[in-house]
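Chapter summary example.
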Amino acid sequence: MQRKTLTVGKVLTMGAVVGVTVIIIAYFIVYTQHRKVLEGSRQGSLPRTKELVNLQFYASDNEGNHSYEIDQQKENPRGNIHVWSRLVYTPEGKKDYIQKRMHRNMFVEGFDTLARRDILYELKCTRDPMEYAIIEVFEVDSQGKTLDYGKTGSSKDWEAIPEGTNIDRLARAVCPIIKK
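The structure predicted for these 180 residues follows.
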């Protein structure tokens, strides 16, 4: 009985087929998720952002005005803190953000009514340098309707907080309060 051997050409062909298959599956998953969020936005079935009543101003830039509220309801045994950040867009900031979404091939349907973005961060104030992870993001219109929504899973992408950024300004405003 003859043994079949794999040639370099066959291995490369199999690798190309597997690679293309993975790309097609990934594209289908991303496309399906995109359609699901778009339909949720149209129907108004996306989750609503938390009602923030004690917002504290911490920065202003071309995008708009940035405020925060520490989330006291989130218990964290590791000593990290959860904080909501709200960006209320300026007309120019809104226009620039919609352009970024279009450039990234993200849907912009309904974004003519975009008013603000609420982000729930988890901060590691005791680290040097401090780190953050994004937990939830809400794009909200002037009536409080969620236009787009994103949430991380159980695994968080921790990043060092870059100096001079709005997340740095937020951490500098929030972390001294916690450390007292």
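To summarize the output: The chain has a mean pLDDT of 85.
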